[in-house]
Every structure is written in structure tokens, then in C-alpha cells.
Specification:
The complex is a heterodimer of chains A (about 80) and B (about 400). Chain A is mostly beta strands and about 80 residues long. Chain A has one domain. Chain A is built from no helices and eight strands. Chain A has a five-stranded antiparallel sheet, with no helix packed on it. Chain B has about 400 residues and is an alpha+beta fold. Chain B folds into three domains: about 170 residues, Alpha-Beta Plaits, CATH 3.30.70; about 70 residues, DNA polymerase, domain 1 (Orthogonal Bundle); about 140 residues, Dna Ligase, domain 1 (2-Layer Sandwich). In chain B, about 40% of the residues lie in helices and about 20% in strands. The longest helix of chain B has 21 residues. The radius of gyration of chain B is 24 Å and the shape is globular. The chains are: A mainly beta (about 80), B alpha+beta (about 400). At the A-B interface, β5, β6 and β7 of A face α1, α4 and α15 of B.
Amino acid sequence: MHNILHDSVDVLATFADRRVRPLHMRWNDRNYSIKNVNLVHTAREGQKKIFYFSVSDIANYFKLRLDSETLEWHLVEVYSS
Amino acid sequence: MSQIILHIDMNSYFASVEQQANPFLRGKPIGITGKRSERSIVATASIEAKKLGVKTAMSTWEAKKICPSLILITGDPEKYSEITHRFNKLFFEFTPLVQEFSVDESFLDITDQAKDWFGAVCLAQRLRERLKEECGEWITASIGLAPNKLLAKLSSDLVKPNGITLTREEDAITRLDSIKLTDLCGIGSRMGARLNDLGIMNFKKLREFPLEELVDEFDSYGYWLHEAAHGREAFEVSSEEVDPKSIGHSYTLPKDTFDPVLMQRYLLGMCEKVAWRMRRDGFVANAVSICVRYGDFSSNSKQHVFQEATADGFQLFELAWRLVEIVRDKGKPVRLLGISTSHLSHASAPNSLFKKEQKHLSVLSALDKIQSRYGSDAWTRASLLPIVFQERASGLAYDHEL
């Protein structure tokens, strides 16, 4: 099941060695522990830099969007096996 | 020692990137499509889908018919574009001579770095490891090593996925004699048919065919064919960026339509996108071409060359719409519209003597600044509000930078 969303989410992340690594996400009153960060890519919206994290837990794939100006996290894609 | 050229071809590129991002797609037949999968084509099929008969550029309904379990994924051009930049940057760790051949293919001249064929194979293996570290385990490449670009590209095609294939000068003839004429980059199906008409069915026959007769038939291309049949090619790896010959955009409409207003809206939207890219990159155009494709997949096209160069979307639209009205078969519904500018030169649009046009140019310049700062959605014409352009990943170019 593949869903495209734009849901604001709370993310607990580490900022170390010039890298951001999301560890946990809270979405729809549920906590998800991120098992793997599979791919990170960036995009530009004008001069604004957006980071996308393709991550997964045991059963789901999530695509998270981090706005580098506002530091807001959004869940933009979910795929459940 | 001759040159050592390395050709890198990313395997099922867009599909591999999606499988890297989403582990639940790994090992499954997937196809990357455009914005609306039902009116789209498979831009890239995963290795698993290819094994089940799905081919690149196949329509999605045909692909689904062949492989009902095929998972269609809408392409993500931003993601592919960044990974392309990432691996091309990585190649510069190995040599300064890197030529981007397409979004998923590059040539590297590693003559000085590798020294000999053994060194070349070691370098190719190291490059493959670095690729895995930078892009992920699922994004793999086939690598061809040879004394020229032609044979390097041919070699990378031979072992897929994740192969390293070496073709030395002395192996070239054997290699060429084991493939079809059309397997070589530079000989398409039409050229293959023309060669067959001359009785040339394979590379052995092509080598035996008199050079003078080849040149009579194909002009300078005849020389290239003769050299290629011997596994020779003179083109070097060039890292210089070449100016585009044209800048264009085409779009499959949400539904086939007879409605001229809807067509005008999409055409104007495309003209604005093309004009923005021209202004951003400092080009003006002296020619515009259009293409109209109908529901039955037949198409018409027309070009107009004009004196006063422009990079104004609305001016391009007025010229383009006139061309559409000349060629359009009004009895057929339109499926796709395309516009392209050519005869490009590096210049700014000429200043007008008239105040109204001067004002228009200054507005355009202000809008460009807004677009550079806030992105392509920062402004739009009111007449374009009823339509939505969705991004696509065609395999040849990306839309998101528009």
C-alpha cells in the first residue's frame, strides 16, 4: 500500500559528523523506530534546501522531508509491505 | 599503450534508486512511470521486471498485460538527478577526464591513472566499491573497459547487472563479430536496414565492403562505419559542457482533447517553462518548433524561424500556437503537445524602443528573481491556474529544474 501525504510529524534525530540521522518518528499518535536510513537526497525550492530521508522500519517505508529553513519535518510517503 | 577508456552504465537506474530507497521493493518487478501511470510508459524497468519481459519505453498497459505483478512507481526526478550528480562527482576522484553521456552513463579516460589493463580492472573494482559506499548497495553499474569509447560502451552492455568487461584492441574483431550490427551504439534500426539492403548483414561483411562505396552511400558516416567495423574510433573523452542545440518541453494531456482553450493553456505553460530555462541559462532563440500527437499516436510537427531573437514565454506561445493551428488535424483529439526552441545564441533579449515592451521586460526580470529565490511555483499566470503540470522522469531529462 503506497500513500502520498504531507503530514507534519515529530522526529527525534541526531546531528553528528555533519549528518542528520532520524531515529524515531511520531505519526498519528504512534511511535515508529527507524531501523534503516536507505537513501538521503536533497532538493531545491528556489534557494531553500530540502532534505529527503528514505527510511524504513520492520514493516514500512517512510519518506521524510526536512525543511532546512524552518526545521519542520513532514511525512510525505508511506509504503507498507 | 593505447588509451584506456571506461564506460559506466548504471543498471536499471531509476528502478534501482527506488529499490535502494524502499527495501520493500527489492527483488520485485517494478516499473518507473510518468506522472499518471495509466497514460504513461515504463521509463525504467527493474532487473526483475526485465526478466519477466517488461521493456523500457513500453506502455504501462502493455507492461501490465505481460507482467500483472508489475508494481508501477511514479518517478521522482529530483532524487535521480541528485544521485546522478553524486556518482559523477565520485568519478572525478579517479580522473579529471569524465564525460557525462546521459543521466545514467558516463565515460572516463583512465589512461594515466590505470597505466595498463590490470590497473584498469583494479580501478574499475575500486570504483564499484566507492559507488556502493556513496549511493547504496542496490545501485549498481556495469563497467566496460576498452581502448576507445565505442568498444567501452559495447563492453559495458555485455554483462548486466554489475559486470566488468574488458575488450583489448586484439579482442575487438572477435567482440564485434559476436554481435548484431544494431547492437553497436551509432547504428540504429533504420541504418541497420539500409546496411542489410546493401548485403551487409554483420561486421565481417562491413569490413569487407569497399570504403569508397560506403562513403558514396553514407558520406562522412561511411568513414565512421568503416572504422567502427574494425573497432576503431577517434572521439576522445571530453569533460567540456556543450551548449544545447535546443530547449524544449512536451506534455501528455490528462485526457485526449478537442478543446483549443485547454491546449492553449498547456502550450502557454510549456512556453513559460522553456523561456525560463532559456533566460536562466542566458540563451535567446530564433526558431520555435511544435509537435502535436493525437489519440491514435499519429503526429504533426512544424518549425518557424524568425529574425528577432526572444526568450519571452508569451511571444513563444503566440508563434507556437500559430504553428499548432496550421498543422493540427481538427478531426482528431490531441494527446500530447510539445514545443522546442532552437537556433540558440548566448545573448540577452533585445531592448525595445516602446515603453510598454520595456515595462514588460522589466516585469519579466523581476519575476525571474522571484522564481530563483522561491522556486518554480512562486508565480503563475492567472490563465494557467485551472491546469496542473506534474513532474515526470522521461529517462532523457528531468523536469524539476524548470
